[in-house]
Write a structure and sequence with these properties.
alpha/beta, 5-stranded mixed sheet, 5 strands, disordered N terminus
Length: about 325
């Protein structure tokens, strides 16, 4: 083949290869552009969603702030003693009444009246509940991973006072005030571990439970969900409760004095009869309440608690490292 022909063919092949490389380069650049555009759109979508969430949270916060101011004005107008109450407390009562200022106002004023009458000195002293404390049935210690204080209560350690239920009522307030004092404006809820191991008929204080629930109207699931179930069990076993009209209890009233406080309730070592009644009541419990109640399997006790509580702050009787601290 003549030299010129070879040169021409080589040149053609060179330029053809160069064109191919350029096309590949262009295709590669194009793919990178498409990939970059896709990522940008995904980031924009994520940013939009994040901004939408922030806007929603901001709007909700502004609504709550406005309504809190309205609630404060309403309650201070009717009860000047409410001027020292902080905004976080008022917000809890607002949330408990779906941000309805009028209903929240009535609820809060009722709470103030009850508080003045039942706790005239501002707090319950240990000397007023010494018999209940001596039963060593409630412990307040540590926090979960969200910073919520933890209460541990043992159903089998409660025994009724046959003479009067007044001390039990004071003890309920004493314990609630103790656990609530450990919360903060940033984290107002707490966690309860209700241990029912060994619980039986001897611990079934129908008069005390009903008095604490119906008279105090305390909002805490250890005296709501758990004791409510206990009361049903007692009612089934104890005809005296129905004959004396003691079973006049409205669970809806239990939220009046300690609203929006419980973050989660762990029920451990639940006996068979308790679970049987729970299955009957469960369909009638609202979804928000159901989400807060966890029945812990014995074989998964430690692992379940460790999902929410650091091992160093989990009670040692459940496989953690923190000894129980009695409420004093």
């Amino acid at each position: 083949m003549p030299f010129m022909a070879i040169t021409t063919v080589s040149s053609s092949l060179y330029f053809l290869a160069e064109d191919c490389d350029q096309n590949k380069l262009k295709q590669g650049i194009r793919k990178e552009e498409i990939s970059s555009m896709t990522k940008t759109r995904e980031m924009d979508t994520t940013d939009d969603a994040h901004q939408a969430q922030q806007h929603k949270a901001t709007s909700k916060g502004m609504v709550e702030q406005t309504k809190t101011s309205l609630l404060r004005a309403a309650v201070e107008r009717q009860d000047p003693s409410s001027k020292g109450v902080d905004d976080s407390t008022l917000r809890r009562f607002l949330r408990a009444r779906d941000l309805d200022v009028q209903r929240a106002s009535a609820m809060f004023l009722k709470y103030l009246k009850w508080r003045r009458e039942f706790v005239p000195n501002g707090s319950i002293s240990p000397s007023e509940v010494s018999n209940e404390i001596a039963q060593n049935k409630v412990f307040v210690q540590g926090t979960d991973k969200k910073g919520r204080p933890i209460m541990v209560a043992f159903g089998s350690r409660h025994y009724q006072n046959k003479e009067s239920s007044e001390e039990l009522k004071r003890f309920v307030v004493y314990v609630l005030d103790k656990i609530c004092a450990r919360t903060s404006p940033e984290q107002e809820k707490f966690v309860v571990l209700a241990d029912l191991q060994g619980w039986g008929y001897a611990n079934s204080d129908v008069r005390g439970c009903l008095a604490a629930l119906a008279i105090l109207q305390v909002y805490i699931y250890i005296y709501n969900s758990v004791l409510y179930l206990w009361v049903h069990l007692i009612f089934l076993m104890n005809k005296e409760a129905s004959n004396n009209g003691l079973f006049s209890l409205s669970i809806g009233q239990l939220q009046d004095y300690y609203p929006e406080r419980l973050g989660k309730l762990f029920i451990v070592n639940a006996p068979y009869i308790f679970m049987a009644v729970w299955k009957i009541i469960y369909p009638f419990i609202d979804n928000n309440t159901k989400k807060k109640i966890v029945f812990v399997e014995n074989k998964k006790l430690k692992s379940t608690l460790l999902e929410d509580i650091d091992e160093s702050l989990t009670p040692d009787i459940y496989g953690g490292r923190l000894p129980l601290v009695p409420v004093l």
